[in-house]
Amino acid sequence: MKIVALNLNHKASLRAIKPRLVEGIEKFHPDVLTLNEYVHGDTRAALLDAMAHIGLIHVLFSERLNENNQVLIASRTPLTIGDLLGPDTADKGGESNFLHVMLPHVGMEIVGVRAPAYKTSGELRIYWQGLIEIVRSSKQRRILFVGDLNADPDRGRSVGALALTGLRSDGWTVPSPSGPWSHVSGSRIDHAIAAPSLSVESAEYVTEIGSVSIASKNKESAISDHAALVVQVRTSVNAL
Fold first, then answer.
1. Domains in the chain, start-ordered, CATH in brackets?
2. Predicted pLDDT at 238
């Protein structure tokens, strides 16, 4: 099963969808799509129609709280809302940037997530303590957390980086995607966290697909400032 995760670079505002977004998504042909730094509103009807046209007919999105970003998840097979809620944070950013869904036809669960870019060490510690508690509580599930984690387990010793390396030690798969970067700054901050029961076959950062520029410093031509994170997960279910 192919999961594609993309940060839209919408900065918590109802920005216009880039014209070639759906074209790029179609070229990936994902089974599941997660969009973070997404904001829902009346102007999104055309986007949802276009995604349905390419087969992503089942769509859910997180509740927007305190004008924070949201997460959208779209799938080719039915979705239901899961029971996990985002980390409890003072500004509600942890909850708003978190969406847990069940894929009953596939027999697995996906959490779309974006770690808010908190500035203080106290806020970061609270967020990551909450997120790691949620992840560890779900170790026995067939579950994948995926999105912009604003941390790199292979570089640095930030709160988030140390938390992700700790999950690896606990038996979770946190792959190091192929490709040089996931953000135009050169950082590698978009990641997947797979439960021990899941087999991740590949993970890669994609900045261009066909003639569609996914991520570039050229804001006019690119869809975002983040590459798409493409994760291939082995599933024994033949629904996809």
1. 2-234 (3.60.10.10)
2. 44
